[in-house]
Write a structure and sequence with these properties.
It is a single chain. The chain is an alpha+beta fold. Among the domains are: about 290 residues, 3-Layer(aba) Sandwich (Rossmann fold); about 120 residues, no CATH class. Helices cover about 15% and strands about 35% of the residues. It is built from 14 helices and 46 strands. The strands form ten sheets. It has a nine-stranded mixed sheet with strand order 1-39-40-42-41-43-44-45-46, sandwiched between helices. Strands 14, 15, 16, 19, 20 and 24 form a six-stranded antiparallel sheet that branches. Helix 3 crosses helix 14. It is globular and about 85 Å long. The two termini are about 30 Å apart. It comes from Branchiostoma lanceolatum (Common lancelet).
Length: about 900
Amino acid sequence: MASSEQLSPEQLSTAAERASPAQLSFSSSLSSPLSPGQPPPFSPVDPQLYERDYPRLKSWGELRQSVRSTRRLQTNLANKVPHNFTFAKLETEQGTRTRLYFLGVPENLKENSLMYVDVPNEPSSEVSMLPWQPLLDSFHATPYMCQYSREEQMLRERKRVSAFGITSYDVDIEHRRFLFPASNSLYICTDDNMTEQAVVPEEVKSQCGAARIDPKMCPSNNSLVGFVSSGDLWMCNLKDGEERRLTFVHKGLSNPAEDPMTAGVPSFVVQEEFDRYTGYWWSPTFDQNSDGSRTYRVMYEEVDESEVEILHIVSSTNNERGVDHYRYPRAGTANATSTLKMLEITVDSSGKVKDTVVERHLRESLQQLFPHMEYLVRADWLPDGKKVWVQLLSRNQQWLILALLPLEFFSPATSDSATNSHGESATPPVYLLLEEHSHIWVNVHELIYFFPQTRPDEVGFIWANEGTGFRHLYHVTASLSPDQAQMGMEVETGGSGAQEITHKAVQRCGLTEIRQLTGGQWVVIGKPDMLWVDETRQLVYFMATKDTPLEEHLYVVSYMDPGEPVRLTELGYYHQVWMSQDCSAYVSVYSSVDTAPACMVYRVANQTSRLIAKLLEPPILPVDYHPPELFQYRSLSGYDHYGYMYKPHNCAPGRKYPTLLFVYGGPQVQLVTNSFKGIRFLRLHTLASLGYAVVVLDSRGSNHRGLQFEGHLRGRMGTVEIEDQVEGLYWLAENVDYIDLNRVAIHGWSYGGYLSLMGLAQRPDVFKIAIAGAPVTCWTAYDTGYTERYMGTPSANVTGYADGSVLRYASQFPEEENRLLIVHGLIDENVHFYHTSMLINSLVKACKPYQLQLYPNERHGIRQQDTCEHYETMVLSYLQKHL
């Protein structure tokens, strides 16, 4: 249950949520007599009062027109925002040229394409607006009728991609060669001399009958392209067009029970809950052989799902089979198992791939080396290509290890000899660099950077850790010598499930130095591509919430002589940043609650930044757009809580308005930030324009507030969140005069749908209506990775699972009609429709009224435009009639 899906089921662009600062509207301690223990008596709406406030209900057609107007504005705003930037340099006789590539929507078009701007080297007296130039010549990237293959659909779902056109690319920065998927195929192009003439991309031809996903160029030979097709790893040599299947584990059988193996692609849980979408890694280096040939290596993950339950889900109306099959491990059941293997590919001096590809296996499997580790959550190579590193996580996710695997630990699959690939009889050990333990859970992150080894018996790296309760950076030096003293590095004491690692092939490393680089009651953001290291100046750049939990900023600190981190981005905005490889420049897409996204380029020198160019000025918003107001209050829990408030348009003094509480409330998500909400949350603005007050709150359990704040949900999801939501609602009602506590609806999607149900069941005195989208209703039916992280296993937390099940509260739902609306996509492969069907069965047994809206061709997120339009119109109509 990843974060971005929860924010909006009908998101139009992956460019949303690039934000900025806001002013807090209110700030005080909670003193309202309307405490959760003493709610106001629920009473029906006075019809005369309703007619005075709303003289006429809008027709379905009028509501539909409001939705269409909103979506036009939403699309226009989203299409203006560039993203996925890459800096490249070219040395010429006139000096160094810098070109910035990115994804954006060309003028008068509707889909993303590769664009570029030429960036000045030095700031001028007047900062100029750089014109966007198309890199590609007249290229259409979206498949005909948007018909993606099932593999592409699943990857888009896991990554929460809803944009069209080119949505990702791989790049060889040195040679400015781009590889990208488009139109159900792969394409490649090269910007040779940084001319202003658009290039024509060349299709990478294939004999594969299925989609090619996760394409990546070999870092040391951009003519070698890897990809996954039909559950196996393939390679194409661009020099001669030769295509080769590298693994043969997936059979392509119609019966999934007989075809459980894949290579190069992670399992569902690893993608969905740990955000790892690749299952193979090219080595950054190659071996030069005496005959002039070169040997390249690729490590890959082989996944065995033979013990994972197969679920059968009704397929879309576009699928004649009628049923789709998915491997899906429900809480408490068996997960997929993974092992790492390696391939050695030799290319002769003419560029032709030799026939023999050497396959290497681990001498001891990961399960043998680390029997208590369940998940392979991260993996990659060290810079010299002589070792690989892995992060492994225990089943209860309270124990994580970081280990190094030497190349020699991979032995040829056809050899029984203990001799390694270099003819040496001794095999170096597997190095256990560090362990982390927590009695809450270990949050997996992307903050790791290995320095080039200067000594064979020592390795240094940047690492993030939550030992203080907040994620911070450390410079760690580990000795690979068995004689060094050992030091521990733990998230917290008291972690459960940790056991001694005793395998004879594993050497526990001594941590000779742990230098803390950052500290305080704020967090370093752990998302991908948010850590940059300047080895020349010994600086590390990172994103964090140091100044306010509502804004993300770029900071820099020395990793050799750390002091107070220096902020480089402007306060009052929420920033999303991309840096150049040499850390000399960065681009920021930033916004605030009342400022639409802007995009600027900065030069970095002496830990300061200077604006040198503009890519996007904040667009002028329509005069009738009213941004939400931020507010904060001190909760009875002792924490500061934050929220948004959308005031009804043309709000009359003294008049009470129906109120919608838009909720998520689960872990991994932060709804309330000082960022522009006119793209992702524009529907909430529409509600305000139609006379509703809209409230959004981040309660305990939400993201970026520290491990204790987030860990409030540990083992008891569904039983504590509504308390915080109601407390915030009552505080706001005491401080503004327009919220009608007799007419409050609660609405959310995914975890927000779950809490919408819990809100109506647990507090029917507070919430008149609940609209629950794609809700979890019983945690035993959700996946292992997410559920067990926060709840433990069903056998270890029987009470927590029972208390957190909506089914338990079926008899507590109100008996009045038109108070419960459930919405679900029938082909949802994440939160299956089974959740809603179980709830309906329980409601029927309890003889409780409900309404159900099904979308036969939608998955967990609503993607299709016609469905989005119907869904939003339906929500407005339901609220208008029944709130």
